[in-house]
Amino acid sequence: MTTAVILAALASAPAQAAPERPISDITNEIISFFGFGPDQANNPTDPQPVVEPAKAELTPREIAPVPVMAMDAPPRLPVVAAITAPSTETPLRRLFCVEYARMRSGLAVFGDAKTWWTRAKNLYARVSHPVEEAVMVFAGSKRLKRGHVAVVTHIVSPREIIVDQANWQNKGEIDLATPVLDVSPKNDWSLVRVWDIPSRSFGGRVYRISGFIAKELTTASRD
Q1: Domain range for residue 95?
Q2: What is d(CA 161, CA 179) in angstroms, rounded to the nearest whole number?
Q3: Measuring CA to CA, which residue among 210, 198, 32 is closest to residue 134?
Q4: Are 213 and 135 in contact (CB under 8 A)?
Q5: Who's near 150: CB < 8 A, 6+ residues apart?
């Protein structure tokens, strides 16, 4: 019997009614088709109990220490700053030695420079030797009628210091890193010579010094 004869016979046979199936069987079949079993349907109103997973057995093991990365050390400033060559700066306006010394030192002393030594009494330490950040007071003279003040920035040796000052050349300028040499016979800093920036040498004149005014009191006070 050929395939064509078998198909023709099946087509001519009377159709048999399919047996009636319960609706629950059809529903379960659809759920199973989509991958859910009857017990797998998610019902938000009926949460399933949470099943804790089996705890894995912990096997003790050696923990290697984590190496600590060394942080870069902060930049270190030199103990003694390099002393630059003497130089002159021109400010926006003319500066006098007293106002520049006040700004640099923080000393609240007013009046002509030659009066600073007397005015500083009982206010600040007055010492006979150079101290860094102290103000050196030039006594009044025929050349320095109002005196002069300069700020000590470095002590080079028992006979030499470096100062910053204003209006030493009578031009309202700022003279930086200016050497000052003690020429007193007893090395008591009562007589000095000051570096002349234009000629690049110590000036020929000798100036009398009243002393040094330090902001902090010290045991070396002249008073």
Answers
A1: 87-214
A2: 6
A3: 210
A4: yes
A5: 97, 101, 135, 136, 138, 163, 164, 165, 168, 178, 180
List, for residues 130-163, the tens digit of each pLDDT value: 999 999 999 999 889 999 999 999 999 999 999 9
State pTM to two decimals. Answer: 0.62
Q: How far apart are CA 127 and CA 190, in angstroms?
A: 12
Q: Is residue 109 part of a domain?
A: yes
pLDDT in the model for residue 28: 55
Which CATH number goes with the domain that contains 180?
3.90.1720.10
Name residues whose C-beta falls within 8 Å of residue 104's C-beta, 6 or more positions apart in sequence.
151, 164
CB atoms within 10 A of CB 171: 13
Reduced to 3 states (helix: H, G, I; strand: E, B; else coil), residue 151 is strand
Whether residue 198 is contained in a domain is answered as: yes
In angstroms, the CA 165 to CA 196 distance is 12
H helices within 111-207, ranges in order? Answer: 116-119
Question: Contact at 8 Å (CB) between 86 and 164?
Answer: no
Q: Please count the structural domains in the chain.
A: 1
